[in-house]
Here is the input.
Amino acid sequence: MGGLPTFSASGNTYAYHDVRRELGADIYRRLPYVARVLAENILRHLGRPGITRELLDALADPSVAPDAVALPLYVPRLVLPDSSGIPVLMDLAALRSAVARKGGDPARVNATVPITFVVDHSLQVDASASPEAEAMNLKREFERNGERYRFLKWAEQSFRGLSVFPPGAGIIHQIHLEQVAAVTLVDQAQTPPVAFPDFTVAGDSHTPMVNALGVLGWGVGGIEIETVALGEPYILPKPEFVGVRLDGVPAPGITITDVALTLTELLRAAGVVGAFVEFFGPGAGGLTVPDRATIANMAPEYGATTGFWPVDEQTIAYLRLTGRSAEQVALVEAHARAAGLFRMAGAPDPAYDRVIPLDLGKIRRSIAGPGMPHVRQDTADVAESFRARAGKRSVGATTAADELPAGAIAIAAITSCTNTSNPHGMIRAGLLAKAAAERGLTSAAWVKTSLAPGSRAVTTYLERAGLLTPLEALGFHVVGYGCTTCAGKSGPLKPIAASAVEQGEQTLAAVLSGNRNFDGRIHRLVGANYLCSPALVIAYALGGRISIDIDADPVATDPQGTPVFLRELWPDDAEVDAVVARVVTPDIFVSTAQSSPLVQASWDAIEAPSGVLFQWDRASTYIVEPPFFADHNGGFAAAQHVSGARVLGIFGDALTTDHISPGGEIPLDSPAGQYLQSIGIPPAGFNSYVGRRGNHHVMMRGTYGNLRIRNRMAGDREGWWTRIYPEGDEITIPEAALRYRERKTPLIVLGGHDFGAGSSRDWAAKGPALLGVQAVIARSFERIHRSNLIGVGIVPLVFARADSVETLGLDGSEEFCFEGIAAGVAQRSPIVVSARRQHGDPIRFDVRADVRSDAEADLLQRGGMFHACLKRMN
Here is the structure.
């Protein structure tokens, strides 16, 4: 490694790649810090296939527009939750099986980079408001997911570099922040060792939470994860670099959740989809890493790829707080300073492609809903938003026994993902609970309450502060550690609430401290979902209604009949600060880094097979060998001409991956539910869609299967319905796909803007591929979903600027012909479409393939990642 500059830390010498020296100090000084991390990755891998000095110059040149070049990046580590991670490992196991069947060496299929795997997406809130809730939910989790966990334990011994955090450890993002992220990585194979910036992609869209530490990372689909795991570069189109300038400080009583929701509203309106957002300005330096993490976690909600915060003094303080070794802390600081990655107070601001300002001092108490995370409102406006959502169904239930107030809250959940990494937010919630308990208040009887911390550290410091007891007095017992309510695993409602919907047709609300509140996501019986801070979740649970002005109206009445207002319960900022300083200390994070004895005993008791090849069990209903290395979707991208295509569905703007591939409970009457019953599984054994992601028979039938999805071909009917043509019959989407497959009819889907918004859900691409979808035509695509479609061989096509389903008058009855597909994919030239109805003239229009690089075009024309990998391995 001759010629590389060096630095020292803790008595050791390290080399590093100096982008500043390569580009020149003036150019480097203007680069956003997040761009500096990308530049270092390119510089360190110069000379590898496709990585040239010209790419480095293009990244640094502001005159080179976003998307004009594709950057091949080598990702040094991966992070996976079980929801997307088990399907990834299953695909790798299936690839081994396919290679073996063709006479190859299955051991060649292995992970080329370390994988951190956190089992956090299988917890369901079956039990709550009980001291036994955590143990009961954990027991049910192991009962439901025994097959999945046995497979995972096989994978842990079979795949190189796979390390697993078992169930009950915590949410992937908080574990990542508190325990896994190194900030600076070291290549020990070189002499001297080479230090470089930490960088990861992960199988969960909220991975940008780790950006709070100065670690570059974002969420990708499982298909992209597999590509990286097998040693291929991750292809990133040059992003737009957006600077968000923060000025001022939040007013007293304003929480970081209020800041995060305000930024989500602001940035979604500004249009930062796919951008690399970086925070700077006088107001940025004073925000702690947990504050930054709350904001960065919401990057998918404001549409950005990242919500980046450069390494600075706050980073170093957090590493010390969470018990990182003195040697690692010293390495991080020395490397960041040497490489120009450390943001120092008073340093000149980088040059961004555009800047969006926000005065923190003007932020008001906020809540988002009733169905999208970027629809922020002042708390005074929430009641009206609920009435608009509920309409005539906002009246109370029809029977006296089940009578609930209008705007009744069915679920109040302090969920793990966004806010529980923030001690100030959690301590404030605990102090509010303490004040409420001291006034004799309780949560409304119809509200299902739950607390799902992101790590065991949260429970420990709440207990140390004496705040766990008052939280439990209000029903906020710990239900477990993992992703729960915000992913639809909220469990059953209280009977009185369920009855109000099923018998009285009442619209109920949910309040949660998470990041997702899409319609139909939280619970099938809850019609309006709101995001807010943990303390506000408790306040609304006390009131039991969303239809109050939480700041102006009484929250509740105490046992003496005296109205109690939020201002009487809301903790003073100084009190919160004092408690945090007293109880949140490094020993807590060190002592809770290991699994609890209860969890470890359950995990250790699982017996798993061993060996290079996994022995697929034909009787399994959870772990079924994926068909992706056998089936092929017809080679649409490689064809010049395709005729006779039919439309499987027409969807509106912002169709989310939740709509395409639900993650919550499996409804009894859904195609997936009907299938499970047909093979002898009773409704009590359905588990969730997340739990069944290893069974493609279920997931294919759940595709386009959200309860609230609206396929325009089915009129006003919600759910999994479409029309098959030329008959015009209304049938389920899976049934239509099967009939079209028997007729050898190619299928397409039509959509609007931001098609595929939401979570990084690979089954939102895999499911359509199995149904036979070969192309999606939309006005625009969300970043991760577009890439996932390409990964499975589905061509993402974009309408010309003036065209849409509406302007062209398409209704799904048409038969589609495409001309010039292969050239359009390879050369980005127009593809001519003709839509013919039974009567009338054909509708002609052009589309273009939303392909950002030659590598993506090549992958599409080889039929997607699965077929390309199998060919390479043989």
Summary: The first helix runs from residue 19 to 23. Confidence is low (pLDDT under 50) at residues 394-401. The CA atoms of residues 266 and 365 lie 15 Å apart.
